[in-house]
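Dear colleague,

Following up on Tuesday's group meeting, I ran the structure prediction for the two-component complex that the binding team flagged. I've pasted the input sequences exactly as they went in, so you can double-check that nothing got truncated or mislabelled along the way. The structure tokens for the whole assembly follow below. Feel free to forward this to whoever is handling the docking comparison.

Inputs:
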Amino acid sequence: MSEKETSPAVLEFNPLNSLVQEGFWDSFSSLKLDKLGIDDSPISITGFCGPCSHPRGSNYLRLSSESLPLDEQSSITSHGNRNKCPVPGILYNTNTLESFHKLDKQSLLKAEANKIWGDIQSGKALEDPAVLSRFLVISFADLKTWSFRYLVAFPAFDLDPPASLVELKPASDYFSSQEAESVSAACKDWRNSHLTTDVPFFLVSVSSDSKASIRHLKDWEACQGDHHKLLFGFYDPCHLRNNPGWPLRNYLALIRSRWNLETVWFFCYKESRGFPDLNLSLVGQALVTLSSGESAETVPNSVGWELHNKEKQVLQSINLANSMDPIRLAASAVDLNLKLMKWRAVPSLNIDALYSVKCLLLGAGTLGCEVARTLLGWGIRKITFVDYGKVAMSNPVRQSLYTFEDSIGGGEFKAVAAVKRLKEVFPAMEPSGVVMAIPMPGHPISSQEEDSVLADCKRLSDLIESHDVVFLLTDTRESRWLPSLLCANANKIAVNAALGFDSYMVMRHGAGPTSLSDDMNKTNKQRLGCYFCNDVVAPQDSMTDRTLDQQCTVTCPGLASIAGALAVNLLVKVLQHPLGINAKGDNSSSSNRGDNDDSPLGILPHQIRGSVSDFSQMTLLGQASDSCTACSETVISEYRERGNSFLLEAINHPTYLEDLTGLTELKKAANSFNLDWEDDDTDDDDDDDDDVAVVM
Amino acid sequence: MSEKETSPAVLEFNPLNSLVQEGFWDSFSSLKLDKLGIDDSPISITGFCGPCSHPRGSNYLRLSSESLPLDEQSSITSHGNRNKCPVPGILYNTNTLESFHKLDKQSLLKAEANKIWGDIQSGKALEDPAVLSRFLVISFADLKTWSFRYLVAFPAFDLDPPASLVELKPASDYFSSQEAESVSAACKDWRNSHLTTDVPFFLVSVSSDSKASIRHLKDWEACQGDHHKLLFGFYDPCHLRNNPGWPLRNYLALIRSRWNLETVWFFCYKESRGFPDLNLSLVGQALVTLSSGESAETVPNSVGWELHNKEKQVLQSINLANSMDPIRLAASAVDLNLKLMKWRAVPSLNIDALYSVKCLLLGAGTLGCEVARTLLGWGIRKITFVDYGKVAMSNPVRQSLYTFEDSIGGGEFKAVAAVKRLKEVFPAMEPSGVVMAIPMPGHPISSQEEDSVLADCKRLSDLIESHDVVFLLTDTRESRWLPSLLCANANKIAVNAALGFDSYMVMRHGAGPTSLSDDMNKTNKQRLGCYFCNDVVAPQDSMTDRTLDQQCTVTCPGLASIAGALAVNLLVKVLQHPLGINAKGDNSSSSNRGDNDDSPLGILPHQIRGSVSDFSQMTLLGQASDSCTACSETVISEYRERGNSFLLEAINHPTYLEDLTGLTELKKAANSFNLDWEDDDTDDDDDDDDDVAVVM
């Protein structure tokens, strides 16, 4: 700022400073992430300025969160606000620091100055004087670290030769007290009208009877003749008394160009506590040398990059991380990776669909942990774990949500420890845990147990109803039966992952049997199968009499990471697919991918099976079976009609489900033909690997 | 125990109790896991007994860690120990609780009794009287929870009609004081000789001149005639005075069967403070009814299942978990899953090769975390992280070793936080962390930086030398160059994992170029390629001027889980392969899998590439290139000859490596033929996805 005594000859101006509030960069980050992506076209922004009303707010052009064109009405919100007169600006944000440094600052400044010159020449500046003060920001926003580097310019014409200052004095000294009173009143009216309050350039006309009026610039011609004093007023943002503020520079250029005046009386309007203050306001007389060859084509030189200590451009930088709530910061950081995916890789990714989805994880073991961790990565926040087990000492090295401490003293419940860990990893998570065993068919119970088992059935049903997606991640086949049935009944997305010793299987269940009659043509559209659709035996007790190494945990380490990651990626594709749960199964090997070509994330298969033995992986397709013990219409109808008595029969009578669905008959017929049915009870039966036969 | 007054007619015996020490089950767990696996054949064990020497140790047959046949010499270690006279036993451990309950206890007891009867009939019992006292344990060992259920039997014949007791008195009352003195001295000698100290059945012969001698049973005939008193002595484990101890039962059966005696004088030998105690010792007279039809075929009935309160068999159980050091418990639990894999799935798995391997992880980001977690699961304990970054707020949801807390206040160094977390997950881990950046080619440095960059090169080289395996998990291509070179130079196993947006690549590097001249025929054996073998450009600065979304973290969540799991499974196969780093690359699609058919874990490919877009995955094979900028003989020789000056040139001069390896010439030639070289700098360049072209 120029505070030294000016020479009588040269008129100097107090330069503007930029005051970029954190909210500006905060909002810009959102805009960049959510809408702009890699698009680095300049965007129109709005700065805010006003007459100086306090030394502490002096001389600033402010940028706030309202400066950005977030919505269509954003420019309207600031209109009519007396302390936030809009100043049009432009923001050049680059995608890399290298591009930022390579920007041609002189050209950019010149381009903005040209706009002002054009508006002066066209007369637009008379209609809307706000365009006389433009500004320009160049920036590099590092959204990963919340740090922002930027430079601001306030383009101003460098008149050649420069204007000189004849005199400058407080307005109260210039006007007679009667005039001053009238000027004050007129200014007050101007500032109080929402039509004029943010019009920063105006005429002050004082008639010979000391009556003052404030007029629009475009009324200059009309003001000629009948006035005693005619001053060019403007909102001076600066509280200093030695020089007028920066807006006068382009104002003089307008005045000289438009009206060819050599002597200009100007009025630096300032306020105090919201009222015109003629002691603070200044009146000055400037002499302008007319340039004969001036035209629309010969734009005066311009200056205006913000300087520090009047010397050189200083790269400004701000890091929001220090001032932000750490949890909000973390949430933003986590969103970042997802939003960056939209920039180039998957522009159509619907992130909101992920944020809001509620996932129920049945099983918080090796698979449950991996599924939860991948859900975290995909931005999913609502996760409910169901598990009745406690953290055993062998768990933490394979179950990535637990630590040694969780396993000592008998172990914390997994459903409790998993919730605690998710909050530790990311405090914005909304996890919950339910310690509960899943009732299983073919595991007979005593009559005393009936009430509690049925209560568990009810609880599971309620949980499934209140979630959008159910992951089946338990360690037995039979514990997946009831959830499979309930998902088919409630038409919820079910994703199933299961491990063999060195192989894995991930599948999504089709829609429930009753979903089709509503909105789809049943004959045209076959449902996708569920986990039990290709079984010829009903699920029953598979746990009794298994040796240690036949239990589920004897798998190659790492299998669960693969299966868990695939399961979540499969879910994400379902959620992003227009048909959702009804999406047909794509097959990578078939050239005709059906109606799913438009899925932004690639194909959406029904099943994925792979093995770390030969590192193979393939997608498979299996349709729903009419004899399925979990998802067939027969079973669902029976469940709906008979409720608890159906459940108890399925739990207590191993053959009930087979009888109900006709599997018993099917098996008899098959045996009579002497087919080689796979025996589910052979020694090599690996529950999770072998029980999902597939029809291609 | 029978403490009531016995009827004069029936001789009752104080039953033995089992005292199974924790060490027994501890050692058995190891034996089961490491050697037996699912083999549930009965195994020979040894119990320990001795004459009662203190009421508190009375009447016990002890089982300790020495009871198991761990090594060939285990039965020898206890031989000659006066307080641990070996008793032969047998252990039936079942693999499931159901099998345990189904065991036919009567038959098992009978089988052991038959052995004793056979030894009596064959005369073996005279040569080695220890076989008169056998025992039997049936158990179910739940190795997951360290709980053990078991029942012990001490088979004893039920003579019909039973023997009757004429009198029973302290030995000091029975012998004259002179005789007693001599008997004491003779017993002391017997007990002090390592040849006889653990022979629990013997003859006490007292001549008419009151001189006593202790003789072997087999000398019974020789003792006839010259003795005044001849008693059947045995180590009585019981301190009670009303009845003789359990060993006398089978002893009487032997005596009756062998020598057809009706009146038997027996001597219950007991000690006090290590010396014979004739006040404590008992002498009794038993009457045995001879059975005329007795033969080898007509075995007497047997009893002997351990009873509690003389009433019923009580299933004993012990849980070691409560008394074990939690960290040791955790370590055992973790081993369990691996050892269980050996039982059935991969009997040839060499777990020790995994325990001892030292892994260097270059990069502790998304991939580094997943690799470390999978290594944990595979039992690998020595992990060193190299990373110069700090935990950012966006990291914890994707980098599974970090929490929110690690990211606040600027973030902990990843190499530090990862080490801390591994210890929290599993205290037996031996992780370490190095905060260091990896010098990169084509990233010129100033002369002031040279010393520190060269020190980093040296440090990296030392780290690679001191580890067995190097994982390349950094987020740029060029940071993998120096480690690739150093691994080729030191002939270390290098495993490389890299992510694209929705695709992943995992590969192992071949052996170094200098390894072949030594032990293999160079013309016959081509080396496998490294990460840079198929590039036609040298690695150079790829980080400058990349937009946020072009950086490595913009990948589908879950990709790193898959790639990390595959990378570790690939390593495990290399470690288990007889040729290790020199193993050829298998291909799943080729029917001829070369010399790797015997790999217990399936095929061992060179590269695996996959995508979550179409859920495909395949294995690939690429040979080493003579023009490779990282592993070719040209480059390795140059590095060995020129050392630091070579490194500086590679770092500072982007074209140096291409000139050196002839890539420059190759490119010129190619350009002159107007081939469509893939441009590494196109917009769609995805570093991690595209730069590993593969020759099939």
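The longest strand of chain A covers residues 147-157.

Cheers,
M.
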